[in-house]
Amino acid sequence: MTDILRPHAEQAYADELAALAGADDRERPAGWRLSPWAVVDYLMGTELADGTVITPKYVGSRRLMEIAVATLATDRALLLLGVPGTAKSWVSEHLAAAISGDSTLLVQGTAGTAEEAIRYGWNYARLLAEGPTEQAMVASPIMTGMREGRLARVEELTRIPSDVQDALITVLSEKTLPVPELGTEVQAVQGFNVIATANDRDRGVNELSSALRRRFNTVVLPLPSDAESEVGIVARRVTDLGRTLDLPQTDASEEIARVVTVFRELRGGLTEDGRTSLKVPSGGLSTAEAISVITNGLALAAHFGDGRLGPADVAGGIVGAVIKDPVADAVAWSEYLETVVRDRQGWKDFYWACREVG
Ligand SMILES: Nc1ncnc2c1ncn2[C@@H]1O[C@H](COP(=O)(O)OP(=O)(O)OP(=O)(O)O)[C@@H](O)[C@H]1O
Ligand SMILES: [Mg+2]
């Protein structure tokens, strides 16, 4: 286990999941490992009667998670929608881990995703040798989920070409996948459902057809509502990541607060005090990016500094995150730097560090 760079959620949180299952006396939908209530407790965090601490995975509205989980107990699939970095993939993985004990039935949506990734393909050597047989067929993650009564995940649904997306319609409405070559079909077992994620910004890449959209309940994951919760999310994830990457655990709170402040101000086009309006850079400046700016800073501090995270360690990462478009974003950034950062109390070092990398 220690050598694995990124264990699946069901491995990383196996203890929590087992403790929840042991304590869970509510009704479980057919094929579910936990009751819907316990799944939401797993996502939001709680303390069990025996003192086991369940860490929060999702920081935000409990109601949203209840809606997501309840959807999966119906015959409709779940679509998690939102701007980049709002924990869509993260929530999808944890839902599958908690409900099915398996988050690995995954279709990664790209422009090149073919119908085989959603239906089934063939092992061509066997197909040629034996003709179409059960053994020559290669099941897709969706087909495996149907057979075994588990959740299947589709990442970035709107990147998948429309005609391929349509292969999901029969699956979701009839809960069956015909295999004409064998004259059979695979009928979904209880416990099967689909969680898809899609990015707001990519809308228009490939629209979801209305026929497909009708098969999903959509839950929109918002950006963190206030700076405090965003700081909390970043701090928690940075600690987790630092542990896996063997980075020394140091106090990063000051720089986390700074990165979150910069990101929130630029994202909203307004300073915290509401006094100065700002140009909004083209990049998303998501919570996920804040996490990686801090993690990069920690690596810089550990390997090239004195181990303590300072303004100079995050400056490069911030500038890189903000300036996605070398022309327009550079203007927005330098305006922000000169009108806001320069004169802000306690931000002098950060200002000069940014000037140096910029
Ligand atoms: N509200 C939140 N609660 C907990 N973690 C969060 C939250 N928002 C963001 N994160 C963290 O942000 C990181 C990125 O999330 P994730 O990759 O799931 O984003 P995404 O919405 O799938 O983005 P994309 O559209 O780019 O695929 C994760 O490590 C996750 O822990
Ligand atoms: Mg994602």
TrEMBL record:
Which Gene3D superfamilies does its entry note?
A: P-loop containing nucleotide triphosphate hydrolases
List the SUPFAM superfamilies hit by this protein, alphabetically. P-loop containing nucleoside triphosphate hydrolases
Q: Which PANTHER family match?
A: MAGNESIUM-CHELATASE SUBUNIT CHLD, MOXR FAMILY PROTEIN
Where does the record place the ATPase dynein-related AAA domain? 78-216
InterPro entries listed in its UniProt record: ATPase_dyneun-rel_AAA, CbbQ/NirQ/NorQ/GpvN, P-loop_NTPase
- UniProt-listed Pfam families: AAA_5 (PF07728)
Q: What is this protein called?
A: MoxR-like ATPase
Task: List the source organism.
Answer: Naumannella cuiyingiana
Q: Which GO terms describe its molecular function?
A: ATP binding; ATP hydrolysis activity
